[in-house]
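[job 4417] fold queue: 2 targets
>>> target A
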Amino acid sequence: MECPTDICHMSRNHEENGGNGKSQKIGLRMFRQAGAIVLLAVIIGVMVNQIRSDRLPLVADWSPEARLTLESGESMIISIEEARELCSSKKAIFLDARSSELYEHGHILCARNLPWNAVDENFDTVMADIHQDALLIVYCDGESCAESEDLALDLFYRGYENVRVLVNGWSLWVEQHLPVEEGPWQGEP
């Protein structure tokens, strides 16, 4: 069976040109158009951001120090040395922002458990006997752990203005061989 002339000719041209040139041109054109739309959207977004009164910074410092600095300029971060002294003298209340399971496997000796993932359910029980002017030290585990930061800011906005964060608190505490214990919080500081 012979191939009709036009079909064979089109097939040979297609193979010689490395595929369908028309579809490659269409694909390239679509890619350029998509890139242009994205670029245009970015330019419009930046321009709108610049004219807003509450604009977002294009470059920001996302370090714990920057995230935990109040509008007054005061830092909410506390050093391990200060935290150790405050725990041993019982001049501060420590709050572990990690889950109850992690708290039960080990926590700072003088800490209560107020897990960030269940703060509303546990707040009244854990905070019942704590005055709003008490010094609170919040911690979790890991330098990138944001639970302590979130809990500290939540407490601050609830009226507890004397809140500090021990960044990477659990790991630092264990590395320094400071007093720890296991088990659930028993309702006593």
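>>> target B
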Amino acid sequence: MPTNTNLMTRLQQDLQSLINSENREEDSNTPDFILAEYMIRCLEAFEIASNRREVWYGAELGSEKKNIS
């Protein structure tokens, strides 16, 4: 388990708990906190890709979405 849970988001904590409660970490022998972090990073990557797609097609993004890499 990570040493500093204060750095984890509520969503990450919820995902970690869900993964643990469903024993989903057992199949891959990967701790639940690593799987939860992976899922959060996948969501972040998808959000970046979605925003870049919108920019490509010329859609106007809200101010909260303009910071894309």
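[job 4417] complete. Note on B: The chain is about 60% helix and 0% strand.
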